[in-house]
Amino acid sequence: MATKRIRKAAVIGSGVMGSGIAAHLANAGIEVYLLDIVPFNPGEKDDINDPAFRNSIATRNKALLAKTSPSPIFTKRDLDLITVGNMDDNLDWFAEVDWIVEAVPESMPIKKATFDKVEAHVNDHAIISSNTSGLSIEGMLEGRSESFKKRFIVTHFFNPVRYMKLLELVEGPDTAPEVVDAMVEFGRDVLGKGIVFGKDTTNFIANRIGVHGMMTIMHLMKKYEMSIEGVDTVFGKAMGRPKSAVFRTADMVGLDTFVHVAKNCYDTLTEDEEREIFQVPDFMGTLVEKGLTGQKAGGGFYKKG
Ligand code: NAD
């Protein structure tokens, strides 16, 4: 199969990672379509009841634009390279791009439903990838065509995308060598990332090890009644990493995403003697239930700000 040089991309999901990926691409001079679903938050109740809001594509796109904040953007020219749109109104955009990267929530059903839409509209040369933290590739590709499977790869970026220098690539069983080569070259030469190869095992390398470490610390904190601030002071400031201490990192990742990633280990590593470490502590589940999912919401372990 032939891939083309990546000049135009579509990013699906404009949350923490999708916004960061879109900004990084635009800063590298790549044209980007950034797609999401229109947020129906309680505050927008009036809009939901307004037929114009429901029916007009322009209004839906405007609502999305208000929600989306690609960051950091270097110049106005870079920002102009990003076009934001509601996913279901703009599925034809997939036919125009050389790479489609999915960054929707870490949920198998949502990922699979997204790929249904991609497959129905993608052209015959685009590379298709997922930014999943560690869901099974075989699971995500269930029911997909041979052509789709050949062009599929996991491109796992790290948060914040602009500053984290690593890209974890994971091939599926049918990924074509040209697709791997194209992604290595693009990731390294255009996006400035170092590349590491993971395997299609639960949470690949980064999150299988990284989440284990963070979960261990959370359980020990609870067991020994340490304070969140105390743990973060020791593992953050004292180690010269004031912004990346354990609980601050969890807030930056998004507690809902963190819970999904930990749960993926808990649900799939059924024979693993360390499985219990991935059991999400009650205090974290409670924050998620209250909508306190971290920096992207009103706050999480820390207040927003
Ligand atoms: P997020 O919750 O911040 O954003 C997800 C976005 O997807 C939201 O804006 C949501 O409105 C949108 N969305 C939901 N359903 C959709 C649909 N059907 N179609 C289009 N858009 C839809 O999540 P995130 O943190 O950006 O994570 C996205 C992916 O990246 C996940 O797979 C996650 O595991 C992975 N990831 C996250 C991090 C991190 O630090 N947050 C790091 C690496 C990888």
UniProtKB/TrEMBL annotation:
Q: Where is the 3-hydroxyacyl-CoA dehydrogenase NAD binding domain?
A: 8-200
User: Which residue ranges does the record assign to the 3-hydroxyacyl-CoA dehydrogenase C-terminal domain?
Assistant: 204-303
Name of the molecule in the record: Crotonase
| Organism from which the protein derives | Lujinxingia vulgaris
The part of the entire sequence present here spans: 1 to 305 of 793
